[in-house]
Specification:
The chain is α/β, with parallel strands linked by helices. It contains seven helices and six strands.
């Protein structure tokens, strides 16, 4: 694993390919209150590119262009949260997207364990450490432990996608999963605009 840390935006020379795994670290779980601090990206090649964002430094034109690029599939675990955080702070709707958590819920109906740590363990046989999950991501200088934790959240998503795609195809749920992925940016916008808990499709 090789980690590259940048301030404020991706460098122009970084080219990540047609499928990019993405995760975010924030100050908490409420995007409207808890600011976006870090965006992690990987092309699935063992390299992780971390973009650290200081308060009020959310211009990031190259990062925004990547998030909105219709030719680049953005690969998340629990995309709903990350898309909402990216929209709230960067002002860009991330799409097209793929979410390994939704794929797991549709394909692995034999379990209720769909967290990233569970998925990586069950499908790839890898133990992920979650020790830094609740650390201070707003610090000006991140520790080596934080950087390694942040990188680990994206380094396995490409392989998870391959495993989950095979399971979705086997169970005849590929089209259903794609319909869910296509709706995710709208679901995230509903969250950001105040409909996080209310089911607008309910009676």
């Amino acid at each position: 694993m090789t980690i590259h840390l940048y301030r404020d935006d991706l460098p122009a020379e970084v080219q990540l390919g047609p499928v990019v795994a993405i995760d975010t670290e924030t100050m908490g779980l409420n995007p409207q209150r808890d600011r976006l601090c870090l965006v992690q990206l990987s092309a699935g090649d063992g390299n992780c590119h971390l973009v650290q964002l200081a308060p009020g430094r959310y211009e990031a034109p190259r990062l925004k262009a990547l998030l909105a690029d219709p030719e680049v599939l953005k690969l998340f675990h629990f995309a709903r949260f990350d898309i909402a955080a990216l929209y709230h702070y960067l002002g860009v709707v991330t799409k097209p997207v793929y979410c390994t958590k939704i794929a797991s819920r549709l394909a692995r109906t034999f379990t209720d364990r769909h967290g990233l740590k569970d998925l990586v363990k069950d499908l790839l046989g890898v133990d992920l450490s979650k020790q830094q999950q609740s650390s201070d991501w707003g610090a000006d200088e991140l520790t080596e432990e934080q950087l390694r934790y942040a990188a680990s959240d994206v380094l396995h998503l490409h392989e998870l996608k391959r495993k989950l795609d095979a399971m979705l195809a086997r169970e005849g749920r590929t089209d259903l999963a794609q319909a869910c992925f296509s709706f995710l940016p709208t679901r995230a916008l509903l969250d950001d605009h105040g409909w996080a808990e209310q089911d607008i499709f309910a009676h």
